[in-house]
Amino acid sequence: MEADHKGGSMKSYDVVALGELLIDFTENGVSGQGNPILEANPGGAPCNVLAILNKLGKSTAFIGKVGNDTFGRMLAQEVEKSGTDVSNLVFDDKVHTTLAFVHTKPGGDRDFSFYRNPGADMMLKKEEVMEDIIKAGKIFHFGTLSSTHEGVREATRYAVDVAKQNGLLVSFDPNLREPLWESLDDAKREIAYGLSKCDILKISDNEVEFMTGTADYEKGAAILREQYQIPLVFVTLGKEGSRAYYKDFAVEVKPFLQEGTIETTGAGDTFGGCVLNYIIEHGILDLTEENLSEMLTFANAGASIITTRRGALRVMPTEEEIRQLIAQRS
């Protein structure tokens, strides 16, 4: 559905996201000469979230910047092909598309090396953000990679303000990538900003520890909820599953562990997109424990499937695939 770019209150998009769009180079075997083979996967957390939402039949739009180069054009094509509106995807003629090299450790955890000094995603300016696209959304989603540098930080804060002023629910995923910050104090400050603005928080157990200083994620989640008054908080626990905190409820759901797991790239984004999908369908005001359990089960299953595939944006699971995995457990 097209946005009413001339303004008005028509809600054309279920979710509008702002942030990084980049190439994830992931390992895919070894060449005949013994060299590692790297596969160029479309990546960037916000677009991964939108990609699963598209697969689940929702309408999305993306705000961001890529280089006017081979990788940037490929990314624009892939995001559009996934079903996302890219009319506010800007091309930079001077700065190249950001690249990330992902090294997968035994067990599926990852190390990231970024080529982003600068990268096109961090060159987005406030005046390039199309506020009519934000106004046409129901949920606005963002992370902290669009707050690592001054210009794109200003663009991000402007977009958040437009979203708040126009009654959108605000969704935030800290998505902490330590190598991208000049100092971890800056990272902490920007995560705190996101926590202060969001209605829906998806945060990992290690990010809870980073922000609260406690390895007890239960205690950490309580600190964040009290300090920032966030209505709905999801804590992802990797191989331990996930938790939701809402009103007086705390609901935990076990993960779907699979023997075919290759890597965890995109798992958190898939989880995040699945919970936003549920919120689009059910709202955020009157959720029950049963709702939260159903939401977490679906999101855990979606995240599990993506760990069995290389990359994320191009290979998101369908609702049928997610339901089939859930059915195997019951």
Describe this structure in words.
With 330 residues, the chain is of the alpha/beta class. Helix content is 37%, strand content 25%. The strands form two sheets. Strands 5-4-1-8-9-10-11-12-13 form a nine-stranded mixed β-sheet, sandwiched between helices. Helix 2 links the parallel strand 4 (60-67) and strand 5 (84-92). Helix 9 (289-306) crosses helix 10 (319-329).
Strand order of the largest sheet: 5-4-1-8-9-10-11-12-13
Q: Which spans have pLDDT < 50 for at least 5 consecutive residues?
A: 1-8
SSE class: alpha/beta
User: Roughly what percent helix?
Assistant: 25-40%
What is the topology?
Layout: E1 13-18, E2 22-30, E3 36-43, H1 45-55, E4 60-67, H2 70-81, E5 84-92, E6 99-104, E7 110-115, H3 131-135, E8 137-143, H4 150-165, E9 169-173, H5 184-197, E10 200-204, H6 205-212, H7 217-228, E11 232-236, E12 242-246, E13 249-253, H8 267-282, H9 289-306, H10 319-329
Parallel strand pairs: 1-4, 1-8, 2-6, 4-5, 8-9, 9-10, 10-11
Antiparallel strand pairs: 2-3, 6-7, 11-12, 12-13
Short description:
The protein is an alpha/beta fold.
Features:
four-stranded mixed sheet; globular; alpha/beta; 10 helices; nine-stranded mixed sheet; 330 residues; disordered N terminus; 25% strand
